[in-house]
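Record 1 of the preview.
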Amino acid sequence: MTQTPKNIEVRLKLPMLEIAGSWEPNDAERRAAWELYVELITRVSVVPLREDEGLLREALTSLYSLFGTTREILRRHGPQIAEPKRSGQYNFGYLAVAMLNYGVRPLLATWHPALEDWESRRPTDCSRRDHERAWPQADELRAALNDTRRNLAVYADLLATACGVPNLLGAYPSPRS
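->
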């Protein structure tokens, strides 16, 4: 394990909010950060979704599930992870809620109903995959997912730093084909 930094620089540029400052996580915040980090790096949320892979619906569902996961982490770790800090300092609670409300929610608010509308028009003789791929807005949603993925990857890296671990997404070389 790398040395756990005491003070971490925070720079998150979200669609509707820019966060810049510092964060001195306490032990409870580090434990909460680890839990959320594991959730983020093991989902499609921070791994690119190539055009020939997966379903857009599954990607949106995975992002939506981050709300429940984050709520549970916030409840379980209690007020210690949202304690007020010195001027200009952030806490885990604020960073977690900001990422959801300003990083993930705008994507879901726009694209969930649009995709749901398209899905409701699927002919019975057409697979979900084929119908989704025929959606005229599929490429636009993939681009929006990629933008959100980049923001979440920066956030995941911030959480890894707070935990004193290397970013597990880029820490090891890719296996050879």
